Amino acid sequence: MTDGGFGAICQYSISANSEIEIASISPGNSTICEGEAATFTASGGTNSLWTGPNNFTSNQQTITVSEEGVYYIEVSGGIEECPTNTVMNTSLEVIEDFATPFFNIPPNFCKGDNIPNLPITSLNGIDGFWNPAINNQITTTYYFTSTS
Questions:
Q1: pLDDT digits (tens, 9 = 90+) for 27-82
Q2: What pTM was estimated for this model as a whole?
Q3: Same domain, 64 and 32
């Protein structure tokens, strides 16, 4: 590079601070079943403040939670040259436990037998439908999908 006045050649060195850590949450958004828990870890700073549903708060870097909702994390500290606070969020979805439908269906039919319609309501009150369509010419497995 040449300077603007006397034609001297100047050498410049540009370097990056490899110690800079970007703030992040791991894992990202999560889905769990009812009764389970999810663990989130924040990185990129020296101080963490989590907030979430029902006035949840924690100053730990890692939290384990089971309540559905959005969890916010404010990460601060770390490298002086970086912004002092970074706010991020992640969400947790909790899926309700589903009841298993019960049926009283004879286990076997012979090829060509008249197969009655399969019930669309289980013995324990779960509504749904069956796939594939009944076929009395082949052996197959039928799957019940709940609509309740």
A1: 777 887 778 888 888 887 778 888 888 999 999 989 898 888 888 888 877 655 55
A2: 0.50
A3: yes
Task: Provide the β-strand partners of residue 87.
Answer: 74
* DSSP string covering 34-76: TT--EEEEEESSSEEEEEEGGGEEE-SSEEEE-S-EEEEEEEE
In terms of residue numbers, what domain contains 148?
A: 98-148
Q: Name the burial class of residue 29, with classes exposed (0-12), middle (13-18) and buried (19+) by CB atoms within 10 angstroms of its CB.
A: middle
Please list the residues that pair with 22 across neighbouring strands: none
DSSP 127: B
Tokens encoding 69:
């909702």
Q: Are residues 104 and 91 in the same domain?
A: no
Q: Is residue 7 part of a domain?
A: no
- How far apart (Å, rounded) are the C-alpha atoms in residues 61 and 76? 11
Q: Are residues 80 and 111 in the same domain?
A: no
Q: How many CB atoms lie within 10 A of CB 142?
A: 13
Both tokens assigned to 75:
């990460």
**Does 9 fall in a domain?**
no
